[in-house]
């Protein structure tokens, strides 16, 4: 029986989740995280900026991405990143078998409120996993870029920050995210 296609339309925003097979780690050292981020960046260029990343967090055994599309289904993008990353991981660690559990999951973002909630959920993932006390302490997340603690790389914060009014959008976003801690 063929797999059911993910819901998608041109201009869609999606919350993408991919977990390590058997919940095993997919990142073992700093270089692994950097390689994954580089593959994300390379895929964006490869597809002529038909995708953009609004937020991400790379956890030890899974990833969360908030990805926007233009006129291509998200499956091409995720397949490219994950197949390249898995190949690299398998060679580096002499690993045999599937690195990722099943196919990635994606959830279509239907409205602005949910879009903001997903960004908050992504950025709070390391806090909820008791890895850090505050989301800005976690290095492998886009959160530091949103609040001005890290140089913006890979993401574009404009869309999310556009929901906040005033001169201190970064501070307002920080207050929004951390209000539920």
Walkthrough of the structure:
The protein is globular. A hairpin with a 3-residue loop joins strand 2 (51-58) and strand 3 (62-69). The protein has helices at 30-46, 74-93, 112-128, 143-146, 158-161, 169-178, and strands at residues 13-19, 51-58, 62-69, 105-108. Helix 1 (30-46) runs antiparallel to helix 2. The mean pLDDT is 95. The chain has 181 residues and is an alpha+beta fold. It has six helices and four strands, in the order βαββαβαααα. Strands 2-3-1-4 form a four-stranded antiparallel beta sheet.
Core attributes:
alpha+beta, 181 residues, 4-stranded antiparallel sheet
Quick gist of this model?
It is built from six helices and four strands. The protein has 181 residues and is α+β, with helices and mostly antiparallel strands.
